[in-house]
């Protein structure tokens, strides 16, 4: 991820949940908001409802890879949080990629 930095602070996640716009699909929820930096900031949340640690990490890796494929089309200066729903563990990578692409298009970011 060339122009993206990870979000690690809880206050940034909370701020996006409260103040950011969101779009949802059957397996993902996308929160986004403009920031004052020149890079995008990305946070990925996968709760214990999705599954055990191995499954959560697999879902996280798939989401990160799907974002990496779309990263060149997304404009800079955005805070993005992607939340995985429990359905994300059962879908394959192509479905996850198409869901993420659909949400970015619906948000007007692509």
Strand order of the largest sheet: 1-4-5-3-2
Q: SSE order in H/E notation?
A: EHEEEHEH
State the share of residues found in helices, binned by percent: 25-40%
Shape: globular
Strand content: 25-35%
Explain the overall architecture.
The radius of gyration is 13 Å and the shape is globular. Helix 2 (53-70) crosses helix 3 (93-107). It has a five-stranded mixed β-sheet with strand order 1-4-5-3-2, sandwiched between helices. 24% of the residues are buried. It has helices at residues 10-19, 53-70, 93-107, and strands at residues 4-6, 21-24, 28-34, 40-46, 78-84. By secondary structure, it is α/β, with parallel strands linked by helices. A hairpin with a 3-residue loop joins strand 2 (21-24) and strand 3 (28-34). The mean pLDDT is 95. The longest helix is centred in the middle third of the chain and has 18 residues, at 53-70. The protein contains three helices and five strands, in the order E-H-E-E-E-H-E-H.
Keywords:
39% helix; single chain; 3 helices; 110 residues; 25% strand; alpha/beta; globular
SSE map:
Layout: E1 4-6, H1 10-19, E2 21-24, E3 28-34, E4 40-46, H2 53-70, E5 78-84, H3 93-107
Parallel strand pairs: 1-4, 4-5
Antiparallel strand pairs: 2-3, 3-5
């Amino acid at each position: 991820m060339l122009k993206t930095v990870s979000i690690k602070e809880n206050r940034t996640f909370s701020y996006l949940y409260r103040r950011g716009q969101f779009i949802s699909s059957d397996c993902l929820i996308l929160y986004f908001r403009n920031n004052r930096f020149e890079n995008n900031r990305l946070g990925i949340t996968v709760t214990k409802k999705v599954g055990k640690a191995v499954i959560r990490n697999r879902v996280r890796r798939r989401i990160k890879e799907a974002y990496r494929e779309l990263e060149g089309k997304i404009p800079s200066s955005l805070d993005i949080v992607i939340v995985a729903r429990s359905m994300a563990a059962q879908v394959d990578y192509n479905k996850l990629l198409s869901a993420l692409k659909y949400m970015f298009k619906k948000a007007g970011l692509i």
